[in-house]
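Example 9 (inverse folding). The structure is encoded as follows.
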């Protein structure tokens, strides 16, 4: 993996990158054997300290925002906490949803790493829309010779941990490659079919009002080239890529 991070936006106080899948945001004891992380790579690339404003899971690719000082990290983080930041994601999921669009309104426990019983449930909402459907000659169930997948656009309206992944599991359309909330046999079959194993979740766009200037920032990251290899979905993904040109 190239250590040079792709910068989407940079000003005096904020910088956004296109995080590749498989890269931690920062080092953590939960993944102690992994030494590479976006925070340290970006710090070394810019030659100055950086502060993460929000998080993406290690397996998720896409727009990731950092601040260049602690005060801006606090101000921008408050915008996330107040629900003022708009986000769009892409996900490849198992199966075909019965509808073309909908909203998942399903409360979630605060900590997904612990049993839900005994934890307070927090409101959580995710709007979704089907962008394309595909059927591959891949048998992941002995009853069927093919398997169905859908490309979804998702707009989380709240910011709970693993919200999109947990919500899609809740409606029985888990994200392909999700080792925690998905289906192991399906994930392995798709990885072998594609020759690539990853969490098929991408942070496509982030909209935030700059805490200092008030400017409306629209930060977008095109899906990586691996997405264009998804059979039956290429035309839609090409259109998405053309519409998400980086700002800088």
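The amino acid assigned to each position is listed next.
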């Amino acid at each position: 993996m190239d250590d040079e991070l792709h910068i989407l936006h940079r000003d005096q106080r904020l910088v956004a990158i296109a995080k590749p899948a498989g890269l931690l945001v920062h080092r953590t004891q939960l993944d102690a054997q992994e030494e590479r992380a976006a925070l340290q790579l970006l710090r070394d690339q810019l030659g100055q300290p950086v502060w993460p404003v929000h998080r993406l899971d290690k397996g998720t690719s896409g727009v990731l925002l950092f601040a260049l000082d602690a005060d801006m990290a606090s101000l921008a983080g408050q915008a996330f906490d107040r629900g003022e930041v708009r986000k769009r994601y892409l996900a490849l999921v198992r199966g075909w949803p019965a509808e073309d669009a909908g909203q998942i309104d399903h409360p979630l426990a605060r900590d997904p790493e612990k049993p839900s019983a005994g934890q307070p449930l927090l409101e959580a909402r995710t709007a979704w829309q089907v962008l394309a459907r595909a059927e591959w000659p891949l048998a992941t169930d002995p009853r069927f010779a093919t398997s169905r997948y859908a490309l979804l656009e998702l707009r989380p309206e709240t910011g709970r941990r693993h919200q999109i992944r947990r919500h899609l599991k809740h409606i029985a359309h888990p994200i392909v490659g999700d080792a925690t909330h998905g289906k192991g046999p399906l994930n392995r079959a798709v990885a072998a079919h594609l020759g690539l194993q990853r969490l098929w979740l991408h942070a496509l766009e982030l909209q935030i009002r700059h805490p200092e200037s008030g400017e409306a920032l629209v930060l977008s990251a095109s899906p990586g080239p691996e997405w264009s290899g998804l059979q039956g979905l290429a035309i839609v993904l090409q259109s998405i890529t053309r519409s998400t040109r980086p700002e800088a």
